[in-house]
Amino acid sequence: MTAPARPAPRIDSPIADRYLALVADSDEVGAIELVGELHAQGVPAERIILDLIGATQRRVGELWAANEWSVAREHAATAVSERALATVAAHTTTRAPKGRITLACVDGEWHGMPARMLAELLRLDGWRVDFLGASIPGRHLITHLHQTGPDAVALSCMIPTRLPRAHAAITACRATGVPVIAGGRGFGPGGRYAARLGAHAWAGSGEAAVARLATDWPPRNVIGLPAVGTDGHLGDEEYTHLVHGRPNLIATAMERLVAAYPAAHEYSTDQNESTVEDIGHIVDFLAAALYVGEQEIFTDFIVWTSGVLASRGVPPVALRTGLRLIHDQLTDFPAAVAMLDAAMVRLP
């Protein structure tokens, strides 16, 4: 009789805490050594990618949102995890090729680490992956498809403000006959916006994407296949007005800020620059919500922003004032006004 196989070691909390401490200290050598130890102990590469590197990246984002970490520290930690991920890839072999897939972040989407992890998961499952990286302009993506003829395209969108560009990319990919699988939080809960924008499939995680591609997907002969869920109302007049008027909306809001919120009179240069950036985000998320016709895109962002600002000592009245300054410039646009009103109701 042969002895039963030992279960693979698990990545428990002490290991996860140790790895977080290493990336927090920008200890690239230590992080690489740790993932090497786990590999040597028999921990599957998929688990290292998902349960250690991926889970830590989510934790890093939470620490930034809570104002416990700076943007610089967050970026440094991500850079360490990128090297650790490369180490995992270097120590693993892949199965027989299943096909070729192009993987890219949509134009303007700079959160490339989730897509990079997916690229390694797909390689482990036997795919040849052309990973194009963050923020790929649509025309360059399509040129690559014509040059390489992949079996599928995987598009990552982590922030809803990139949905209009995601829609353009998906439409262009469909025109070439290459099926599209979408992924990332930007496509909404359960990927609800992915089908509306024309994607053939959606996956909520790297594991789900691998499983989806391992079944009866990707489809073949997709040229002319109708986009499920599209209704012809994407990017209407209100959206167009908001996008074209963005610079003036922000400038006017800043001109009126001190009168509406006297505390802003004492703002430093850095605080003024942050306020301009925050108002720009408000306009961008409002535009995305108008484009897709989904109020929750905007209201959920405002609730999240309220928490982020509160962790930085900014009172809710400041955010409410910013919303009101945008609201008062859009009185002729009922959908935008309704979204702004709904967001203000949800503020504390």
From TrEMBL:
Tagged with keyword Chaperone: no
Keywords: Cobalt, Metal-binding
GO process annotations (BP): homocysteine metabolic process; tetrahydrofolate metabolic process
Record keyword Metal-binding present: yes
Domain of life from the UniProt record: Bacteria
Ranges for domain B12-binding: 98-224
Pfam families from the UniProt entry: B12-binding (PF02310), B12-binding_2 (PF02607)
CC annotations in GO: cytosol
InterPro entries: Cbl-bd_cap, Cobalamin-bd, Cobalamin-bd_sf, Met_Synthase/Corrinoid, Meth_synthase_dom
GO molecular function: cobalamin binding; metal ion binding; methionine synthase activity
Name of the protein: Methanogenic corrinoid protein MtbC1
